[in-house]
Amino acid sequence: MNKNNVSKHQYFYAVGLSYKKADAETRGKFSLGTDAKATVLQQAKSEGIGSLIVTSTCNRTEIYGFAEHPFQLIKLLCDNSLGSVEDFQKVGFVYKNQEAINHIFRVGCGLDSQILGDFEIIGQIKSSFVESKEHGLGNAFMERLVNCVIQASKKIKTDTEISSGATSVSFASVQYIMNNVPDISTKNILLFGTGKIGRNTCENLVKHTKNDHIVLINRTKDKAEKIAGKFNLIVKDYDILPLEIPKADVLVVATGAQIPTIDKDILQLNKPLLILDLSMPKNVHDNVKNIPGVTVVHLDDLSKMTDKTLEKRKLHIPEAEAIIEEIIEEFNTWLNGRKFAPTIHALKAKLNSIKDGELNFQRKKLDNFDEEQAELISKRIIQKITNHFANHLKESDTMVDESIEWIEKVFQIEATKVAK
């Protein structure tokens, strides 16, 4: 496939880090909350970056955008997180042009997820693009790309079994609880934090443990009450969290706080406690692990659980990759069309200019010059010539950038570039 730089000076990059090389602590440093993501977009606009989207989940933080150099995007990430450039150099990645396009497809289609086939990330990409558009940072390239990734994700989910079976971070946590806590239906479960992962975990807890006395606590109580009403559960005030924890056999922490909310100082325990930290950054302080009877499991530990469901999913990777390749090819065809269309228009204008000059010469030279017939024939010849060039540029093995440069040089034309 062609290397798709959209202009001669700016390139499409994907920069970021993920669970593949960065541990939970490092990912936590680079994690971007709602306010931080908005600040990234504002800073990008003020620094003249025309289009980008920002995603930050428990498994990854990534920026996709246009820049002359990837450091412009890396700087945006480091300026608005607790991560440093030195940290990024150790665990981060930079993909350019076609590699960046391939990467966002694999991420959005669940092939790069910590748990294979987990499609929650596509919703993040979609909402991130909507936010970028609201800041005036969503161009035609990015909109088409995101829509193609969504299309591929839907097709893979529908046409393959790569997401078959209940496997996600939230389900894996419930699976762990059920495998390690006897008589779970009779135990006291406390869920702290009711964001997306918290909601999904709550639903899985109710469905699979048959436990109907789960207690929910959230900083914003009305959010917890909405979920509790759906499942007929109990909601307690955030202020009494330290009083509720000692009653629990299992504590699930799924908040969006940027610093640990659970530490040894608030754990006054008189019985064993299993804590599952599903937050990013970590919301359970490391000093908790030193308390006798306390077991702490982080989402990275959960993702290492292998079962028959995941093994079955791996069999469907080739099908998913074939779908991605097909839709990437469609995207590249559209992209190349955008790239060479201005050159074809400029070529046609140049040929028409030559034609007008020649017809004007013949008009003065010949007394019986048939101007209408000459105009008709000339236009047909020009159309055939431009069609030949256009068809050449559409060929899959054509080096589009080099061909455009050659055409512009030979015919001494300068095409107006399409806005990215």
From TrEMBL:
Quinate/shikimate 5-dehydrogenase/glutamyl-tRNA reductase domain ranges (all copies): 180-304
Catalytic activity: (S)-4-amino-5-oxopentanoate + tRNA(Glu) + NADP(+) = L-glutamyl-tRNA(Glu) + NADPH + H(+)
Family annotation (InterPro entries): 4pyrrol_synth_GluRdtase, 4pyrrol_synth_GluRdtase_dimer, 4pyrrol_synth_GluRdtase_N, GluRdtase_CS, GluRdtase_dimer_dom_sf, GluRdtase_N_sf, NAD(P)-bd_dom_sf, Shikm_DH/Glu-tRNA_Rdtase
Chain positions recorded as NADP(+) binding sites: 193-198
Keyword terms of this UniProt record: NADP, Oxidoreductase, Porphyrin biosynthesis
Ranges for domain Glutamyl-tRNA reductase N-terminal: 15-160
Class in the EC hierarchy, top level: oxidoreductase
Active-site residues (renumbered): 58
Listed Gene3D superfamilies: Glutamyl-tRNA reductase, N-terminal domain, NAD(P)-binding Rossmann-like Domain
Marked site: Important for activity: 103
Annotated NCBIfam families: hemA
Subunit structure: Homodimer.
Name this protein carries in UniProt: Glutamyl-tRNA reductase
Organism whose genome encodes this protein: Flavobacterium macacae
Name of the gene this protein is made from: hemA
